[in-house]
Amino acid sequence: MTPQEMKQLLKERGAQVEAWLAGCLDGRDLPPRLRDSMLYSLQAGGKRLRPVLCMSTAAMCGLEPERVLPFAGAIEMVHTYSLIHDDLPAMDDDDLRRGKPSNHKAFDEATAILAGDGLLTDAFFVMSGLDLPAPCVLAALREFALAAGSSGMVGGQEWDMIFTGMESITLDQLRLMHAMKTGAILRASCVCGAMLAGADAAALKAIGDFGAALGVAFQIADDILDVVSDTETLGKPAGSDEEQGKNTYPKLVGLDKSRELARGYADSAQAALARFDGREAAFLAALADYTVNRTA
């Protein structure tokens, strides 16, 4: 699959996610300001990579991607909650997100916290109601909850806070933090799509390996972009990692080695797809290239 074809399919599936997110709170009775705050961040744009991964691995395993769209959209709800909370003064204290004022700047800190809480909790309500065989839904729900919780994304954020400002950490410590904070959700997005499609253990193992490698490549690329890009392109403050005393791949091993590592993990992600063929596998392989070559 050519890069242009990959970007077109990514755009098409991203648009499906956008349309679902626009209506995900319809018919719900909640305070207007809270609704506005939740939708403000949900509709702020972004690559929609995680829900697209869920839809694409489901399709690769034989299930129409539209069948998992609500679950995939709920993954984006969880991702959005994490961004709202990451930007809070008590965390990264960022004023910009995707080129717009952060949620706590556009509304207020208390509303931003509640918007994140609402998105997280509502996501699992959506996931649990998916119209697919109950054992598949339950397995995927448990997988994603584990990735989002204290031994996954939340725990990774805690390690990030602990490591921030430390003079130096080891590469193994950095890998652990990123595997939890970023990699766990990316991997689960891939595995959950396959689980919802009823994939067998061998397929789940391969897709999990793909997602784990992709997650590392994505994070290294993010670390690099914070150094080499600018605020307008990123849609968030460039150089904030260094300013906040974050430990990153460029800080530990330099830019050239970071680029080499990102490419290596992208290659590993592509190798994990060797047992699959067809359009969806080609799309995911091209997506691994895009992950390390992107500019924002």
From TrEMBL:
Q: Which cofactor does it need?
A: Mg(2+)
User: What CDD domains does the record point to?
Assistant: Trans_IPPS_HT
Which top-rank group of organisms is this from? Bacteria
UniProt protein name: Polyprenyl synthetase family protein
Coiled-coil residues are: none
Quick one: a GO biological-process term for this protein? terpenoid biosynthetic process
Which Gene3D superfamilies does the record cross-reference, listed alphabetically? Farnesyl Diphosphate Synthase
Give the taxonomic lineage as stored in the record.
Bacteria, Pseudomonadati, Thermodesulfobacteriota, Desulfovibrionia, Desulfovibrionales
Sorted keywords for this record are: Isoprene biosynthesis, Magnesium, Metal-binding, Transferase
Keyword tRNA-binding set for record:
no
- Does the record bear Nuclease in its keywords? no
Molecular function as annotated in GO: metal ion binding; prenyltransferase activity
User: Which Gene Ontology cellular component terms are annotated?
Assistant: cytoplasm
Family statement drawn from the similarity comment of this UniProt entry = Belongs to the FPP/GGPP synthase family.
Question: Which InterPro entries did the record assign?
Answer: Isoprenoid_synthase_dom_sf, Polyprenyl_synt, Polyprenyl_synt_CS, Prenyl_diphosphate_synthase
Species whose genome carries this gene: Candidatus Desulfovibrio intestinavium
